[in-house]
Amino acid sequence: MKNSTGNMSELPDISILKCMQCGICSGSCPSGRFMELNIRTLIKKSASGRPVLDEDELWMCTTCYSCQERCPRQIKIVDWLLSVRSKAVHEGNIKPEHKQVIKNLLDTGHAVPINQENIEKRERLGLSSLPSTVVKDDGALKDVKNLLKSCGFDTIINEDQI
Amino acid sequence: MRKIALFFGCLIPNRYPGIEMATNLCLATLDIDFAELESASCCPAPGVFRSFDEMTWLTIAARNLALAEKMDRDILTVCNGCFGSLNEASSRLDNSNRKNKELRLQVNKHLEKIGLEYNGTVKVRHIIEFLSQEFGSDKISELVTHPLKVNVAVHYGCHMVKPTEKIKGDSAENPVFFDLLVEATGANSISYPDKNQCCGAGGGVRAGLHDRSIQMVEHKLKMIRSKEIDCIVDACPFCHMQFDSGQYEINNTQNQNYKIPVLHYTQLLALSLGYGPEDVGIDQNVIKNNELE
Fold this sequence. Notes:
The complex is a heterodimer. By secondary structure, chain A is mostly helical. Chain A folds into two domains: 16-90, no CATH class; 96-161, no CATH class. Helix content of chain A is 46%, strand content 0%. Chain A is built from eight helices and no strands. Chain A has helices at 24-28, 30-34, 39-47, 66-70, 77-90, 96-108, 116-125, 138-150. Chain A is elongated. The two termini of chain A are 15 Å apart. By secondary structure, chain B is α/β, with parallel strands linked by helices. In chain B, 46% of the residues lie in helices and 9% in strands. Chain B contains 13 helices and eight strands. In chain B, α11 (210-225) packs across α12. The chains are: A mainly alpha, B alpha/beta. The interface between A and B is large, with 64 and 66 residues.
């Protein structure tokens, strides 16, 4: 992952400069019980103007919203973290597993596409072999692909790298 | 009650189709006017795609909302992730303020390229909230023909109740509405430590940091196993996959013997309405348990 800079302490709707470092967020964080994520210190680091876009901790959040619900300063912590992630991704900081999820959406319109095993499970239940989604409707899949292109989503990953 | 466009997303039709079948059977038995949202795509998944690019996430969500709007129906989701994404998108693109309308204009610039427009009128419901609000546990219990004598570990999952800024449930810290619906089937909801803790799958963690994600679900499973419990009941296919295939992975890598059956609420409800376990794909889980099959 390449080095990144960028001040993420004040976003259009979120300011982490209100943070008083009380630690309710990190005390409430289930990821913090099992991983290195310390959301309080991540916020402190970003609020003091230091770069956070390279931090692996960004990707340890399950977006459970416990911190955001309990923050006494009502800082939208998860929304902030998602914005920081997005900035990181646009600077090329993205895991190979997440590139694969992007590729799935670009190719099939689904994050998790159908496979033969599940076609057979559907048939055993008496369901149609394919669900009534974009997978069964070429025109709709083309629409989704056009929207993804219109938003520039295909440029986030370099498909040669997958 | 507005008519329903049923939205299954990715994991239900493509990994746990038994939940699709169970949902269809339950809604038909409850005489709800529903039609599947045809030609839908991924919601798109909030933890990953919203992390990657917000406008893409919002635009693809808006396409799904616009398809439901054309049908003049509200969206019913059966997955916490789909609910999280579509509810958040709907609340940002509705007509409640000027900022939302301005954002909708930007989204509609993309949608017009495929001949669609979203006017901000679709509400998004979650099956548990929907059954709780529109029927209530007393009414559901009157419809039950085969009361289930099982002890259940209820798992709400995060995005059914949080963020409370966008979701008005009974409580984010100690919700009860799902437990009441589970008990309406005759089952007992058994309390267990860290009941409201995350399963560990969301936010791209299951894909990106898989081993750590499994550590998180292992903790939940340990807490559940510490009680006399017959099965886990969830409200989301991603939590469902994490509990079900998570047990298989833990058994294979750590010489454990977890075999707790995992049911989505619609599967539990279908059993209590008289359908068989194989009708709703409970035998198609990774973790097998003959007592419930």
